[in-house]
Amino acid sequence: MRADDRIEQARLLYERAVFEGDTDAVTAAERELDAVEADLALARGRIAHARFLDGRREDPHELGLFERAAELYRNLGDVRGEAEALFWIGCFRQVVRDDDAAAVPVLERSHRKAVHAGDALTASYALRHLGIADQRAGRLESARERLEESTRLRCEVGFLPGVAANMVGLAYITAGEGRREEALELLDEAGSIAEAARAYGILRHVKEAQARL
For residue 163, what is the DSSP state? Predict the structure, then answer.
């Protein structure tokens, strides 16, 4: 349900409570508004994260927004929403705070809940960042397995920019295993996918990786 629909439903529930004496309508209205607040907190948190990626300056509100969203989704029994919010908490701790030890348990919870909810996209994000943690720790085999599974899920849902991004990660892993030529082939394929999808931000990462390798 869209935010506008939920707000309108809360208004109608207010009228039922006030004019018809339906006291249960108040609780129902609060749930509708909690869902709106959760969606808004998550959306604001994502924008704060985008600003961080652009300027590398932490927004002091970002983590709190994701934590509020996770709390609201959990109280609402929205497993899919909670899985997504948990991913962003883990992503914040890994990317902004550079703290894999704190990020990994949250990312694992996100992955479990996303699988339970049938949310392949969020599961793919959690796996990608778990793979990044493995790669940083030198666990290249586990990192490859997680990025390959993440890529499979992204292909399944047609998320081509995400497929290209994962292939960049797989290229670094492949190069770390001593297979430079294969890594460069992966980057060529990633570049083609990114260009076709007009994912120019990912294309920049491809070119950076090609220069490094």
Answer: H
Q: Are 143 and 173 in contact (CB under 8 A)?
A: yes
Would you give the end-to-end CA distance of the chain in angstroms?
47
Residue 119 one-letter amino acid = D
CA 101 to CA 36: how far, in whole Å? Answer: 32
Burial of 66: CB neighbours in 10 Å, binned 0-12, 13-18, 19+? buried
**Contact between 170 and 127 (Cβ < 8 Å):** no
Look-up: residue for tokens 């994912």? Answer: 199
Map tokens 């049938």 to a residue: 118
Residues 6 or more apart whose Cβ sits within 8 Å of residue 62: 45, 48, 49, 52, 92, 96
Mean pLDDT per block of 10 residues along the chain (213 residues) reads 90 93 93 97 98 96 98 98 98 98 98 98 98 97 98 98 98 95 97 96 96 93
Residues 125, 155 contacting (CB under 8 angstroms): no
Kindly list the distances between the CA atom of residue 213 and the CA atoms of 110, 144, 165, 168, 202, in Å, as whole numbers in the listed order: 32, 18, 16, 11, 16
**d(C-alpha 44, C-alpha 61), whole Å:** 9
Instruction: Please state, in angstroms and rounded to a whole number, the distance separating the CA atoms of residues 85 and 66.
Output: 6
Write out the two tokens for 104: 């990994």
